[in-house]
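Researcher: Going back to the complex we discussed earlier. I've cleaned up the inputs and rechecked each line, so this should be the final set. Can you rerun the prediction on the complete assembly and write out the structure?
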Amino acid sequence: MDQRVVDFISALRARGVRISLAESIDAMRCVEVAGIADKSFFRSALRASLVKEPRDLPTFDEMFPRYFGVEMPPPLQQPGGGMSPEDREKLAQMLEQMLASMTPEQLRRLFEAMMTGQGMSNSQMRQFLNEHTSAMQMTTGFQPWATRRAMRELQFDRLEQLLQELLDRLREAGVSEEALQQMAEAARENREALAQQIGQEVGNGLLQHDAEERRRRPAEDLQDRAFDELAHQDVDDMRTVINRLAAQLRTRIALRQKRASKGILDAKSTIRANLRYAGVPLDVRHRRKHLKPRITVICDVSGSMRAVTGFMLMLVYALQDQISRTRPFVYYRTIADVQADFQQLRPEEAIRVVPERVKGGPWQTSLGACLATFTRDHLDAIDRRTTVIFLGDGDDHLSPPNPRDFELIKRRSHRVVWFNPEPPYRWGREDNHMHIYGPLCDAVHHVSNLRQLVAAVDGLFG
Amino acid sequence: MFNAIGEVRTALSAERYIPSDEIATTVFLAEKLGKPILAEGPAGVGKTELAKVWAAATNRELIRLQCYEGLDETKALYEWEYAKQLLYTQLLRDKLNDLLAGVTTLAEAADRLASEEDVFFSSRFMLPRPLLKAVTSERPVTLLIDEIDRADAEFEAFLLEVLSDFQVSVPELGTIRARHQPMVVLTSNNTRELSEALKRRCLYLHIDYPSADQELQIVNLKVPGLPPKLAQQAVEMVQRLRGMDLKKHPSVSETIDWARALLELNARHLDRAVVENTLNVLLKFEGDLQRARRAMIRDESDRSRRERDESGRPRRERDDEGGRYRGN
Ligand SMILES: Nc1ncnc2c1ncn2[C@@H]1O[C@H](COP(=O)(O)OP(=O)(O)OP(=O)(O)O)[C@@H](O)[C@H]1O
Ligand SMILES: [Mg+2]
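Model: Rerun complete. Updated structure for the full complex:
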């Protein structure tokens, strides 16, 4: 049973269910405690210890019967069970002779299983198919077709011929026709069961490849792909990736803050709190070291920047519980406050409409003018606790650099950081003003893919 | 505590809770392995109730920590009772004066005071909050950490430490270790993703809406006196509503409320007027109500069409039979 549970766990993993080593050990203990006599309890025990995400429950429900249900290949019979001892002796001898000289090896193995009833466990069968067929290397395909191919490679249909040969030999040796018929019938049933098991394992192999593909794609690859390649990504995929990254970030931030020390004495708040105790400082207040940041994010929504801006804003909104205040702006030829959009719409919808809030077209980015508008109309979005993030390539096709307003923003805020997806060698060339703004920032990050973006965002949280 | 899963079922039923196999097994495993249960599922399916009846069935005290945004360690663990500390300072003023007698410098005074501060930061002045209560309890307890998804991730990280060894440290008092390992139920409505570390540590119990059978048992248990036929119809209706595309599906607690309302109204069976008058107990959104009404009207016309057909068919059959008889 243990082996079977192990097989089951690896099948779940192959289908994308994340199961840690600790959890698989728990599963074994749970099975031990719950017992295997009652199928429903047994199933619940595995489910409670292995599946921790509602989205994985259907996978569990689908796979469980394959490993522990009626779909299990029927146990093989022992052909010749009803024969007289002498006949059985003859059968054993003849079979041994035949097997001794039988090639290829895989056919010998199958024939032996068919004639003795010594089958293979599912994992042995998988191994067997791996070694002797190409069906398990197929990454995509149609299960019946892949199964036929595996059968052909195994020369499965020669089993009948071999059975006839054995029957002939036994007949010659004087075994009764009736006993032979019985034996043949059992052997053929075994052959059917083997065929069924092969089909099932080939099918599982295909599923496994499929799942590995799917698993690799969203999380790992997307993170390292350049933003412009992600521009046409499906929103659902995008949301999944962002949520996953946000969850990771959140845990990382929380653990880091947990480990950091308690914070420094907050004299003002301590005095205030202790007025009621006649100024005796009974209630000592510490300044929380990790105040949640206030963030004002100013994003370029010119054509080349839309994808990265979308990711950035989704990430910021996925982390709302870590941020005490968020003020989003977008710019192109003009700049606009888009907070209302994020209040009314879900982030993935909001990022689609915000580019319409500003004017602009190809080669019309006007960063310098937008900075001037910002300091004129929107300075209320910045205070001494605010971190201002610019997300843009630093291009400006219409106005001269505007360090004056940029410095004003910097003076009013806690920190100014710039996230730039363009490679640094382009900064300051032609219409690019990064060489002006960059040195005025507290930090500049090159963010050309999600991994870099996440690392840069992580830096915002103490 | 329990020797078999069947016993869990019996014990919970005795507390008027109908557990599915899944629930009974998970509680049994939690008892045997000492692991926390993380119960997730839609609102009103009995997550909180499970913790309560489990505590009652095992004769443990239930300690509840209700989570909310901004909940932090101090509110969950302990607070100092400042008012009491202050009162003692006042009452002990003379003693304090004695203590400080002959002191000439401020620094010396502070040192002397500091040497006595243990008096003020001792368990006498400590106000234990749920987690500390659970850890220090003399008797075994069941700890319910309700709606953990509402707390911040930071608090979750802290909780993880408490749950891993059931000990907490209070800087002024040192480390306190649980005498009895509490049985723990965490509930979540899945409004945000919990950390994998926390999930790994727990047995996971996904509680879904009960099957029709179980729900009927629940109704019979909680609203005795409701005519069996009516109870049956009511549960069928609720189960149908859950199959519909609604903004919010009726929960078990709403089924119970509805059943009570039906009993109150002295209804005999579910006719249109009765349903019309009570449907708002079950559905809370106007859009959902309208959708459900439309579906009911559709049903009714289907049914009457079927009845018309049926009342037509028997006649024909009777005619046929009559014909045969006549022929014989
Ligand atoms: N299996 C059950 N047996 C008996 N009563 C049940 C069962 N399930 C739910 N109930 C009833 O439903 C009511 C609601 O349950 P409870 O408050 O525990 O739901 P919940 O899942 O915690 O919901 P929420 O997510 O809103 O907190 C309980 O008062 C209980 O009476
Ligand atoms: Mg609840």
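Model: Worth noting: Chain B touches chain A at residues 5, 21-22, 24-26, 28-29, 32-33, 35, 38, 40, 69, 80, 82, 85-86, 89, 120, 152-154, 156-158, 190, 192-193, 195-197, 199-200, 202-206 (CB under 8 Å).
Researcher: Good, that matches what I expected from the previous run.
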